[in-house]
Amino acid sequence: MRRINKNDEKKQKVSLLPKTISIGFFGGLIWSTVAAFAGFFHFTTITPKSFVLRSWLQNSWSDQWTGELLSIIVISILSIGLACLYYLMLKKFNGILPGIITGIALWFIVFWLMKPLFSNIPAFFELDSDTIVTTMCLFILYSVFIGYSISFAYQQHFGENN
Questions:
Q1: Nearest to 89 by CA among 44, 154, 42
Q2: Coiled coil: which residue ranges (predicted)?
Q3: Which of 103, 107, 110, 81 is nearest to 148 (CA)?
Q4: What pTM does this model have?
Q5: pLDDT higher for 115 or 106?
Q6: Domain boundaries along the sequence of the chain
Q7: Long-range contact list for 123-131, CB < 8 A, 24+ apart?
């Protein structure tokens, strides 16, 4: 007869929601910061502030570092929702391929479907190739980070309990 350990009972009761929230927040924080640096070093003309602030605000502060910092924080908070959505739909898929596919899909959603919301972003055919490649790679890296982290946490948590 197998004896039930108190730690096993606690592990089964623990939800992965706090871990998913932290993965989403830090994924947004890390990769939007990388995007801001990519804009600073002219790898891309589109930075986090281009989406979050500059499409609606034309104040001088929104085009400076304070606007970029506020945009990074907003993207980090929005990223929590994306991480929870990924957890609900794709948590059982292992590897980086689901993250790559999700990143490409997310890029097309933002740059094609949501384009009317972002008046500050040029149309796809007006973007230079450096911006397209850099932003596509950043979206893929972000999604791979989120996807791999969530699926790893899920497999580690429920793989040990089975």
A1: 154
A2: none
A3: 103
A4: 0.85
A5: 106
A6: 16-154
A7: 127/45, 127/46, 128/45, 130/42, 130/43, 130/44, 131/44, 131/45, 131/46
